[in-house]
Structure formats: structure tokens, C-alpha cells
Amino acid sequence: MSTEPRTRAWLEVSASALRANLETLRSGLPEGVGLIPMIKADGYGLGMLRAARALEPVAPLALGVATVDEGLRLREAGVERRVVVMSPVPHGSIGDAVDAHLELSISDPDALAEIRRVGRGRAAFHLEVDTGMGRAGLDWRRVGEWGPTVRAAATELRWSGVFTHFHSADLASGAAVDQQWQRFQDTLAALSPLGDDVLVHACNSAAALRFPGLAAGAIRPGIFMYGGRAGDGLPDPAPVATLRARILLIRDAPPGATVGYGATYRAAEWERWATVGLGYGDGLPRALGNRGHGLIRGRRVPIIGRISMDVTVVDISGLEGVERGDVVTFMGRDGSGEISPDDVARQADTISYEILTGITSRVPRIWIDDGGS
Ligand SMILES: *Cc1c(COP(=O)(O)O)cnc(C)c1O
Predict the structure, then answer these.
(1) 220 lines ligand 1 (CB under 6 A)
(2) Ligand 1 mean position to 204 CA, how many Å?
(3) How far apart are CA 11 and CA 335, in angstroms?
(4) 221 CA closest ligand 1 atom index
(5) Host H or E run for residue 130
(6) Ligand 1 pocket, 86 CB below 6 A?
(7) DSSP-derived secondary structure for 325-350
(8) Most C-beta atoms within 10 A of its C-beta, which of 40, 53, 234, 287?
(9) Tens digits of per-residue pLDDT, 206-259?
């Protein structure tokens, strides 16, 4: 690794903006609601361990991950907070998870039986109720069948939580959330009385912002914390991640010159082109070719031609004084300009989650704690 991480391309991550966004989420909630920040998928691509450390002052109730390996990495790094593994657990990882005191999500009675077998009373579980997401959880309609099994298991294991997940909390209409919430409440009633230790949780970022009354015992925010919008009509998060790269070469292109694979862009007149050290191999979506733009000193510069694996070319015609080594910002704030993760996502026809988690390991993450957003 070169010792200076800002030589080619890098991602700046603001710890204080991350905390500020979590504070925005928290400020709308009733008193006493716990926080389970989701730091899965390497902290939405920004760095899981750094995110865990940045969130420590907030004293989260627990940290949320998707996989057992993510939880084990936290433990290896010395993180002692409660950790909940949200995805259905592969049975082969249950032993490791229990040894590392990870709390497991349960989607089927078989997993519960397996945890009982290896857990020997030490294991903690959260019951997931499927109220319409359809990818995990026990079917809310059949609580009469699985309820007694869960109760029996709870005499031996620690029943730490029960949760559901909304599929459409980003939509302005709350109809789908209402329906899932009602199903969840019916399930909780069928399981009652729940012990005092059983934490009830349901809300992701969008649900926590839109329906703070459904926060229950804890919320599980992700995208909004990391600077992605949670849905229409909801507040803008503070920018957290800034993707920058340096100009490696500058050339004057005569009329008719072409750029990139397939020669999809042709200079109409004399133009000035800059080759920037960032490509789809770094996670800049290839779909941005001939569509997206970067910022140089706050001014927009269009991406021309197809994006290559390692470099991207921008048209800097008319911008005075641009030199090799200058910085181009492809996401985040630069001067008075800003490209949000959602702007990039829209141009690439995807969601901010995929943009952030798609930034590859070639790009060093530089965490800063700048005391502001
Ligand atoms: C990822 C995830 C979240 C966070 O969702 P956001 O939309 O990023 O806020 C919450 N709960 C579960 C179960 C998840 O998998």
C-alpha cells in the first residue's frame, strides 16, 4: 500500500455526519427507544469496524450485522457490545456464533432446535416474524403452530427479541406498513405474555422517520445514517461519504477524436479531456458512461465515453487552470456542488445502498471526525 492514501482514488467518511444522521433519527422517537445501528455489509461499504467505533459514543443497545462472520470480525476487533445477526443463520455457523455471544435471528423451528443442541443455555435468539417481506421469519399466520415450540425453547435459551421487517416503509403511503404492523401486533398478542427481556423491534430508517410511533423497543437504522435518502418526503441526511479521485492525464482532443471502448463519444470541436484514476473496478457504476458527471472545484464536468475498469474520462473544456493531480469528486460535496449517493443511484438506475456497498476494496476508506456535517 502506498503510505499516502490520497494519491489516486479514495473515499472520505465523516464519523460526525454518521452520528448526526443517527441523532436526526433518534430525535423524532419517543423517550427510551433503543438503537440497533445496522453495520452489515462492511458498514454499507464505508467500513464496519470504523462505523462501530464511531457509534460507540452513542451507546447503541446493540449492533446489527447480517452474517456470523461479520459478528466474529467485530469480536476479534474487541467490540463488546451486543451484536444481533439479522439474516437466517446457516446451521454450520451456529456453534461459532454462540461461542462469540452473537444473538441469532430465528426463522424456522429447525434453527431453534439446532441452537438448543449446541447452545446449552448460553445462546440468545431474536424471533423474526414474517408479516409480508417473504424472505425470512416465521409465518405470522401460523403462530398457533410454532408459538409453543418457541416458548419451550425459551425455557432453555435466552429469548432476547422479536422483530419484523417492513417491505415498503420508503413509500409515502403507509398502507403496507399499517398492514404489516397489524399482523405483527396480532402475533405478539398470540405470544403474550412476553418476558421483560424480549425486545420488540421493527423499524428501518424509513419507518423510524415516517412512523416514530412504531419504534417499539428499538429501531434498526441503516441507509439514512450512511447518507442515503430513506424515501420521498423524508428529510435529507447529512453527506457521509465522499468519493474522490485525481486527474492522471490531460489531453487536447481534436474534432472527431473518440474516447473509450466502443468509441461511443466523439469530440465535436477542440475539447480538453482529463483521465481520472477511478473506474468501475473501484465501484463507479459503468452505467454512468456518457451520463454521469464529476465536480472540479464545485463545477460539473461530464463523464464522456464508457467508463473503464480503472479510469474514467471527463470533459474539462472551458475550465481554466485544471492540472494533472487535481481532484475530481464523483460523490459528495465539493465547493458549492454536491452529488449525493441518491443522485449517483438514479443515474445508474439503482439504489444508494448498492452504490455505497459497491465501492470496492481498491478504494481506501479515510475516516475523519470533523466535528460537523
Ligand atoms: C438492512 C436492514 C435494516 C436497515 O434498513 P435501512 O433501510 O438501511 O435503514 C433493518 N433491518 C433489517 C432486518 C435489515 O436487514
Answers:
(1) yes
(2) 5
(3) 17
(4) 9
(5) strand 124-130
(6) yes
(7) T-EEEEEEEETTEEE-HHHHHHHTTS
(8) 40
(9) 999 999 999 999 999 999 999 999 999 999 999 999 999 999 999 999 999 999
